[in-house]
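Onboarding guide, step 5: your first structure request.
Type a short instruction followed by the sequence, for example:

Predict the 3D structure of this protein.
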Amino acid sequence: MNMLRKLLPLAAIALMCVACAKATGADNTETNNDPMTQQTPDTASVRVLVKTTAGNFTVLLYGDTPKHRDNFVKLVEDSYYDSTLFHRVIKDFMIQAGDPDSKTAAPGQSLGSGGPDYKIDAEIVYPKHFHKRGALAAARQGDQVNPMKQSSGSQFYIVTGRKVSEPEMQQMSSHLKNKQLQEVFNSLAMEHRDSIIEMQRRGDRQGLSALQESLISQTEAKVAALPEPSLTEEQKQAYSTVGGAPHLDGDYTVFGEVIDGMDVIDKIEKAETDGRDRPKDDIRIISMKILK
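The system replies with structure tokens like these:
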């Protein structure tokens, strides 16, 4: 499968699996070990009021992404986000915040690497939750160092996006197909993680190459038996009318959406930015509050 070979250089297998090994257990959010409460998981949504120097807006945290919901609520209750900046703003795409280093950042300082000392396991509920305009999602490191798509412990973004044309949505089918290939391959590679790490340790490039060819063949067979991926009617409707960022779908955890104050998001999006996409005039989160 030529496309899969283009997506996967030889070293990618070892790099991916080593990263997976390091990522295991990185989620430090609290879990409930009571077997009685585990039988009835908490799926309640939560509303959060966000006060900023550009105005206020309200987000709804989804109940079916509980790790992200609970982590966000904890940070809000700890006043973690107070005084942080919207440090990355890209017109027709998104606004990003949540870097604690931004609280005392000097003008022009590069931001985007700060956060707590943990990550959150991915909760990608796709295609139910997707990157429509107003979607709230978790930022994360790229696949090369984060193949499990774990989220930043604090950084988040809100999609502004743009309307998507019919030809562009048709092109998304190819993107979804490539993503399906990658995900199936990653899953198969994880099953061989220990042997891959050992071959990397020995410098056994021949063994890695042979395993890669075997995994590609297995991926071909598995994908051939799966339904052809495509956008849902809800996605098509949203992307063609209000817009969004469909190229991010399935790769990042969408854990909420703006339910009031989207005009404030639009105002922030229009801010003049520097070469690093940071607003030239600071736009700051004053505080957040859980709404009952």
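Each response can be followed by summary notes, for example: Residues 21-38 have pLDDT under 50 and may be disordered.
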